[in-house]
Amino acid sequence: MKYLDEYRDGDIAAKIVAEMRRVQTRAWVLMEVCGGQTHSIVKNGLDHLLPEGVELVHGPGCPVCVTPLEMIDKAHAIARLPNVIFCSFGDMLRVPGSDGDLFSIKSLGGDVRIVYSPLDCLKIARANPEKQVVFFAIGFETTAPANAMLAWRAREEQVNNLSLLVSHVLVPPALEAILSAAGNRVQGFLGPGHVCAVMGYSEYDPISDRHHVPIVITGFEPMDILEGTLMTIKQLEEGRATVENQYSRILDRRGNLPAQQLIGKVFEVGDRKWRGIGTIPRSGYHLRDEFSRYDAEKLYEVAEIATLEPEICISGEILRGIKKPHDCAAFGTLCNPQHPLGATMVSAEGACAAYYAYGRHLNPQGADALHQIVPGSTPNDIGIQSPGEREYSHGSR
Amino acid sequence: MCLAIPGKVVNTYDQRGLRMAKVQFGGIVREACLEYVPETQIGEYVLVHVGFAISRVDEAEAERTYQALKDLDQLTELESPIVEETAERETRRPTRPG
Q: Is A293 part of a structural domain of the chain?
């Protein structure tokens, strides 16, 4: 775990945290919704640098984690078919279904291949005309332009031995579901930077307005996360609730328009089930009817597989920000990255897996009492900055 | 797998009507599709996610972001096998020049 003095930007970090202390008058609960941010927060111990009372909870930002078990079982059933080459991003290979994972299917003779780009599937399909190539098209909006292009090119090039098993999810409906649920604790969001590099961020305005919550689109580097947290706290303390962009060096309000156009031609929005959370209305992409010829769910009559998640697992409550990994009796004992019981442990970007990877399961208090370890500025520092030292401002980077 | 990785466009070419590029990430060169950032020129930096450039960035930002991803062990997707157009089996590993 790293602390302030190890950061390249240690001075900036100290100033951001001091500014948080200056503006903060009460406790706030913020949620990040990007697996990369979760990983960065836990690896760098950023949540321990925040002032007492500012709590970060870890939302459903890892696409591998929220892919439902039913869909994973469907993928495995297709991957076991003798004439199929099953292609997937590497992250999905170790995710266990009800009976093994893609690696075990491969070791038993299934033709399972890791691809870097969805376009690799076109090459594999052209090189293997006697086989059926199926691609596991998972992801958030960041991945949608790539997966959309695969379906688009397959149709354009008439590569007809290729199909997509689509399990695409969208961030804004998840925020809406979290805010609307009984027992919600989340008062502000750090929005996902690279998702918004594709989609822009205007679609977050109605959510911020309706629920009166600040949403600050934020990068994943330690300074980004601290700055995004400060911007969110400032809004909360001032009684404001708008969408702001901490990550303006990467993205603007509109996002990537050519990417959005192709997504719109290939996919339509529909209901999706999220692992740990359940079905969220209009929360994912499905292939449009014009692409049904390339829809693996329609091509392969895989019976609806009934799946049961272990009762002890609280990943649903963790994904909604109601609980933390340490609130789970199975965390680090029955449930670990080698034997994950639920969504937040199945991928390195899930909250439980990140807590485990950085040794937090070894601390029975959950390390949440470590706020006082921050070197440098303390609450006593408020108001004693030297006159020449300007208040930290958002525009300075 | 929710993050994009910055790299330098070292070469561009047409592949079956798609604008493609060789993009250098540290010591690894991979293919990326430029269809979503069509104005990109050789020598410029782009953010690449699963083989698709989604945004252009300046050199300083690219270097910072690359280092941050390295610190987080988020570069493993670059190690995925290269699929050759004509090959029956994907066996070649990504090239590491130098």
A: yes
Amino acid A301: pLDDT: 82
Separation CA A297–CA A294 (nearest Å) = 9
CB of A39 within 8 A of CB of A62?
A: no
A115 in contact with chain B, both atoms CB, cutoff 8 A: yes
Domain carrying residue A117: 64-170+272-299
Closest chain A C-alpha to B50 CA, distance in angstroms: 5
Per domain, the residue ranges of chain B are: 5-79
Q: Helix (H, G, I), strand (E, B), or coil: what is residue B56?
A: strand
Q: Evaluate whether residue A396 is within a structural domain.
A: no
Q: What ipTM score was computed for the predicted complex, to two decimals?
A: 0.88
> What does the DSSP assignment read for A274-333?
ETTTEEEEEEEEEE-GGGGGGBHHHHS-PPPPP----TT--HHHHHTTS--GGG-TTBTT
Question: Is residue A42, in this structure, part of any structural domain at all?
Answer: no
pLDDT for the residue numbered A40: 94
Burial class from Cβ neighbours inside 10 Å (0-12, 13-18, 19+) for residue A394 reads middle
pTM of the predicted model, to two decimals?
0.89
The rounded distance, in Å, linking the Cα atoms of A319 and B29 is 36
Report the phi/psi class of residue A243: left, alpha or beta, with left for phi > 0 and alpha for psi in -120 to 50.
Answer: beta
Among A35, A116, A124, the residue with its CB nearest the CB of B51 is A116
In CATH, what number is assigned to the domain containing residue A109? 3.40.50.11740
Class of domain B5-79: mainly beta
For residue A2, give the 3-state DSSP assignment: coil
Give the residue-averaged pLDDT of A74-88.
97
> Does residue A200 lie in a domain region?
no
Contacts of B83 in chain A (CB under 8 A): 113, 115-116, 120, 123-124
Q: Which residue numbers of B have CB closer than 8 Å to A's CBs?
A: 1-4, 16-18, 30-33, 35-38, 47, 49-52, 54-55, 57, 61, 64-65, 68, 71-74, 76-78, 80-88, 90
- Report the candidate in A119, A115, A128, A113 with the shortest Cα–Cα distance to residue A157: A119
Number of separate domains in chain A? 1
